Structures are given as structure tokens and as C-alpha cells.
Amino acid sequence: MNDTMIETKGLTKSFGRLKVFENINVKVKKGEVLVIIGPSGSGKSTFLRCLNHLEVPDSGTVVIEGEILDTRNKNHIRRVVEKMGMVFQNFNLFPHMTVLQNVMEAPITVKREKRDVVMERAKNLLDKVGLSDKLNEYPSKLSGGQKQRVAIARALCMEPDIMLFDEPTSALDPELVGEVLNVMKNLAKEGMTMIVVTHEMGFAKEVADKVIFMDGGRIVEEGTPEQIFLNPKESRTRTFLEKVI
């Protein structure tokens, strides 16, 4: 049985003359947590955006649950990308909608699900992320950590098979980081397949099954958290970790 959820082969992306990353080969199995670390500008976030087609790679292939993403077929892309939820640095909540409405919006408008079914699921998810008392609040009344937890609940409400996190705590005050990471840790414990781009090394050590260190648009090193954090092979990895830990 093939339990590979995401695989990239030779993935390459440039913006004009700037080569963001080149020849990225990654494989993530069902229930695995892959954490990608590295300095700013190393291509981590753009790589994540190529997985769900927010950016179109120049070459290479993205395979999601055995299906090659066909960049020429919009319907195919839409169907495959719906299997992935994504949480961004900035929360991107609709300011004119309540917390509950934000979480319910996509399944109703995109998947045409019944409102009462979605409402029950949304309430359960908001309870799961510790926000059952905020259903009728508007985003402007929430802290950054609360907004990010709403964003996670919103992504989960689409019932994705895979969750992508693009530096989900980088816009938060330090004391609010923990509440978001705890939600992500619980998702990992439940077996959610996750790819996380983060600067939170403690989270990577604790939760990752596999860690990739990217720099200069390439994968410098990959391995288990123990290999990367305790015994990195590459001098560039060691230099980076000495600065951030």
C-alpha cells in the first residue's frame, strides 16, 4: 500500500531572474509531520505555496495522494488542492464575519455543504482549539493567538487530509505562541499529516518526524530531529542552529 501523501520531484521555482529554489525532492507519508527550517529567503514559504498551487512551479511535479497536480486543468487542481488546508502567517480572517461565520464560510460556499452540518462541525472545531466562548465575536476583538486558532479551525472545517502551516506563529507576540503550538501538537498526536515551516525549534524537536534544513533554495540536510539538532552533518546547518538555538 502506498501511504505517501505528498511527493515533489525536481520542483523548481523562479521569480524573474531570482531562483527561489531548485530541484526539491520531498516525500511525506500519511500521519507524518515534516518541519522545514532555514533562514529567511531560503525558499521555504514559496515551496509550501507551490504544493497547493498558490504559486505555479516552473518545473518538476507535485503528487498529492498519488495524483500528479495537472497545472493545465483548473478543475483537477481545485479538487486536489481541496485535500489540503493551509494556515498563513497572517490570519486572513473576514473582518465583517463572526468567528463562527469565518469557520463555516468555505465548506458552504466551496463544497456546497448543508449549513446545519457545517455549523455543528465548526462549533466542535472551535471547542477543540479552545474558542467555544468566542463564536459570536468579530476578529477585531481577538488576540493574535486567538485569530490564528480560528484560522486553524477554518482550515480544518474543510476536512483536509493534509495541513500546511506557513510560519503560523511569526506574527504573534511571544506569550501567545504557545497556545497556537499546542493546537498544532494535538493535531500531530491525532495523526494529521502536516508540513510546517517555522522558526520554532522547540516545536520542531518535539513534534517533527522529519526535519529539512533549507538554505539558498536547496535542501542542505534532512533527517530526524535528533540527527538535525544533535548531530548535523553539514557545517551550514550547524552554523544556522548555533544562531537560532
Shape: globular
Broad structural category? alpha/beta
Strand content: 25-35%
Gyration radius, rounded: 18 Å
Q: What percent of the residues sit in helical stretches (DSSP H or I)?
A: 25-40%
Question: What's the average pLDDT?
Answer: 95
How would a crystallographer describe the biggest sheet?
A: 6 strands, mixed
SSE order: EEEHEEHEHHHEHEHEEHH
Strand order of the largest sheet: 6-7-8-3-9-10
Which residue ranges are poorly predicted, with pLDDT under 50 across at least 5 consecutive positions?
Answer: none
End-to-end C-alpha gap: 39 Å
Instruction: Tell me how many strands there are.
Output: 10
Tally of separate helices: 9
Highlighted features:
single chain, 245 residues, alpha/beta, four-stranded antiparallel beta sheet
Topology:
Layout: E1 4-15, E2 18-29, E3 33-37, H1 44-51, E4 59-64, E5 67-68, H2 74-81, E6 84-87, H3 99-109, H4 115-128, H5 144-156, E7 162-166, H6 174-189, E8 193-197, H7 201-207, E9 210-215, E10 218-223, H8 225-230, H9 235-244
Parallel strand pairs: 3-8, 3-9, 6-7, 7-8
Antiparallel strand pairs: 1-2, 1-4, 4-5, 9-10
General description of the model:
This protein has helices spanning 44-51, 74-81, 99-109, 115-128, 144-156, 174-189, 201-207, 225-230, 235-244; strands at residues 4-15, 18-29, 33-37, 59-64, 67-68, 84-87, 162-166, 193-197, 210-215, 218-223. The protein is of the alpha/beta class and 245 residues long. The strands form 2 sheets. A 6-stranded mixed beta sheet has the order 6-7-8-3-9-10, with helices on both faces. Strand 1 (4-15) and strand 2 form a beta hairpin. The mean pLDDT is 95.
